[in-house]
Specification:
There is one protein chain. This protein has 197 residues and is mostly helical. The chain has helices at residues 2-9, 11-30, 35-47, 57-61, 69-75, 78-88, 93-101, 122-136, 148-161, 165-178, 187-193. The protein starts with a helix and ends with a helix.
Length: 197
């Protein structure tokens, strides 16, 4: 319901949530994550941007690659808002943690807390890789998608500094082996990701 509500505000963000959900599930599975942890990561991928429900319309209508300082500050609050929203509905702490930390980077350059390396939960690191890959490979109002070969080079470069390099390597293996998600995954496919294994 929360993901659908976000989709009412922005169709790109809705489709992005579905793809990040699928990529997170695939990457976590390749990393040998299973059981409840896999389900939590999958749901974290679906809900990672739910805090954007509270953002102003000017953010969703923006077509500029560079945001103003004020707008950037607003965007940087969405993990905090998302986590608080999920806390209010008694969401799983593991999902909440994923939403809160998915923009942290291993070199400390992320937000909202500037965590580094092992300070960042595995679930958030997985969703971060999935999120970045999808952002690179899809069209946004302010940015054209990259070709797959170029996207994989960019992802590998990000694994040197800001993303977990082991997870990046696994993501590249996963994409080279099983390909990319469709622009809008079928709802039946997404639903199947939440079934216990």
């Amino acid at each position: 319901m929360l993901a659908a509500a976000l989709g009412q505000r922005d169709t790109y963000t809705h489709a992005h949530a579905h793809r990040v959900c699928a990529y997170s599930h695939r990457l976590a599975s390749r990393a040998k994550v299973n059981g409840d942890t896999l389900l939590d990561i999958t749901m974290g991928g679906m809900l990672h941007d739910v805090g954007k429900l509270a953002m102003s319309d000017r953010i969703f209508s923006n077509k500029q690659a560079c945001l103003s300082k004020e707008m950037l500050g607003e965007v940087h609050t969405h993990p905090l808002i998302g986590a608080e929203l999920l806390r209010q509905i008694n969401c799983s702490p593991a999902i909440l943690e994923t939403v809160l930390y998915h923009h942290e980077r291993i070199d400390g350059s992320g937000y909202p807390f500037g965590l580094k390396g092992a300070e960042i939960p595995l679930s958030a690191k997985i969703v971060a890789v999935a999120d970045c890959f999808d952002a690179i490979t899809t069209d946004r109002p302010y940015q054209r998608r990259k070709t797959l070969p170029h996207a994989l080079v960019i992802l590998e470069e990000m694994g040197v500094t800001c993303l977990d390099p082991d997870l990046v390597a696994l993501m590249i293996q996963e994409i080279e082996t099983k390909g990319m998600e469709p622009v809008m995954p079928q709802s039946s496919t997404i639903t199947s990701l939440f079934q216990p294994i």
